[in-house]
Structures are given as structure tokens and as C-alpha cells.
Amino acid sequence: MYSGHAMWFVALKMLVGDKARYLGIVLGVVFASLLITQQMSIFTGIMFRTFSTVTDTGYPEIWVMDKKVQYIDDVKPLQDTKLYTVRGVEGVDWAMPFYKGLLKARLADGRFQTVNLFGLDDATLVGGPPTMVEGRLEDLRRAEGVIVDENGARGRLAKPDPAGGPPIPLRVGDVLELNDHRAVVVGICRVGRTFQSQPVIYTTYSRAVSFAPRERKLLSFIVAGVKPHLDVEDVCKRIEEQTGLVALPANEFKWKSVFYYLKYTGIPINFGTAVLLGFLVGTAIAGQTFYNFTLDNLKQFGALKAMGASTWTLLGMILLQALVVGVVGYGIGVGIASTFGILSKNSELAFRLQWQILLVSAAAVVVICALSALLAIRKVVKLEPAIVFK
Prior knowledge:
Layout: H1 4-17, H2 19-50, H3 52-56, E1 62-65, H4 81-87, E2 92-106, E3 112-120, E4 131-134, E5 145-149, H5 150-154, E6 175-178, E7 181-190, E8 200-204, H6 205-211, E9 221-226, H7 232-243, E10 246-249, H8 250-264, H9 267-296, H10 298-306, H11 311-343, H12 355-381
Parallel strand pairs: 3-8, 5-7
Antiparallel strand pairs: 1-9, 1-10, 2-3, 2-6, 2-9, 4-7, 5-8, 6-7
């Protein structure tokens, strides 16, 4: 009889002894974990971009909007008088206007670029960018002042190099033209990329309204805070009852935007198909290779059984082999996916690796290895020790 540790050693020896088969099984698991982790991380990154505006406008606790607004970019302008109505609701500590719109920016070389223009309350500047790279938020009060996001300044808004070199990033003091209005860059900020990766420009509310095309209503949203020790949900209900508008806590507004894209776009189907394909292909490669590996080693398993090894001991050996393959393949696959995410950090690619994705990927690898081991276990259970003497 062999001891348990000795049998484990034999199982590992059998596994790595056939290097071609071993690498084939591992590569199947690597492919599955890599594709599942990568595609789910890109999907998550895209979903996070759908509500990046709400995330970057982190101070307000409540967003008030028209009833027909479906997501953050679906702006339905409000009457200016609604702002004062919201301020009068019991429990509201403060309420400020917030403008959000798409404008055409004319660049120095005559090109036009669509930008996201955000207008902040002139007095408080509530809703400003979370991080300033250059300049101060208060500089928006300077004449014609705007703040541009870092990615936009380096990318789509960059100035062409007269000498034909790489584009020159937009800097403090440069001038833009927004809807035939002069705008002076007074700061550079760092914000999350939007769903369409368009440049983001901040300015005061009154200046944003003057930049925007003339309409009867220009108030995009009302952002508000709640008095201390009051429940946000209760205050939202009061706002809705007294104004006829929709009031949502910031986190609910984020999910409202996510659910819109999940329901009305093909993004979930596209990424779900890629994840399913990775799972199926990984299962097929690992399962077939592991099964062939077991067939090639039936004589060895028969010899062990003839020398007194129980069926449970042989099953334990197969499960150990599947476990080793799963751990190695999962580690390599997730490592490659993580490296891919790090290298694409400053690119247009949306990549966000959450810990939940690692759990899902690990669960998929467990299923793949379990199915692969199940195919091999069936052959070993039915194995007769006499096979070794044939």
C-alpha cells in the first residue's frame, strides 16, 4: 500500500511527465480564465463610464431631473423656477443648478471637436472635478475661464505641432472657441472617461448657458444636499411630491444609467457571447486533453489498483491533477489579463478589474476542471486491474 503523500507525488509525476499534454491542459484553462477575466473587466469598465459624470460630481447626495430622463446623458431641461421649488422642500440643505450638454469646440487648426460641457453654480462651484492637475477650481470665476480634463487636453483637444511632431497638449492660458464664444483654459483636471471618451470641459453655470445654443429651458439637473441626520430616501420622496420631478440618490442614478445600457444596447450580449465562448473553448480543450491524458495512463492506474490502491485513492489523484492544472492555468490567465489592464491604463480602452470578476473567473475554472476530471473519473471507476496484464 502506498501512503497518501506518496500517491500525490506519483499523481504529480504522471501529470508533468507528459509535458505536451500537461501544457495543453494548462493552456486550455489559461485561455478560458484570460478571456473571461479580460472581457468581463472591459464590460465593467464600459459600465463604469456610463455614470462617470455622477461619480466625478461626488459631493451632491441627490440628483433631481425630469421624469422622462432615462440615463445621465439623456438630458431633459427643466424650468429655472424648479430650482427654487426644490430649495423650499423640507429636509433639503442646499440645491444648485447643474448644466450638462454637448458643444462643438473649434480648435487652433480649425478642426471641430464635440465636448461635454458642465456648468457649475457660480457662487459655490458645487460639482467640480475631484482632482486638479493644474490651476484651481476657483479660477473658473475668471473671465472666460474653463477647466479641461487631462485626457482631452493631451488627446482630442491637443494642438498640432507646426514642425510636424506629436500634438502639443493643451495648457493653462490656451484659448478655445466654444459655439463662437472665446474660452480661456484656467486649469487642467483629472476625471473619469465618459462613455464616448469625449473631452470634458467645466465652467460656471451662467457661462455654460451663454455658450449653449439658445433654448427655452437650459437647466439640465438640480443637485442637492440633505440636512444632517435626515434620510436621503425620505427627502427624495418629498421633492418628488412637491415638484413633480424625479429625485434620486447619487448611487441610484448610477444604476439607472447602467440598467438603461444593459436593457437597450447590445453591449451585454456582445460581451456575454465572448465570455461564453471562452468558457466553452477552454472546457473543450482542457477536457479533451485531460481525457486523452487519462487514457494514456490507464495502464499506470491499473497497476496501482492491482497493487492495492483503492478507487477513492485514484480519484483523489485525478482531482489533485485537475486542481494543480486549474491553479496554474488560472494564475497565468488572470496574470496576463491584469498585465493587459495595467498596460492599457492610460488608453481609450475601458478596463476595470473588480474582485467579483476574479471570483467569477475562478468559479468558471473550477467548473472546467471539474468537468475535465469527471470525464477521466468515469474511465478510472470502470477500470479493471487486469488491464495491466493484457
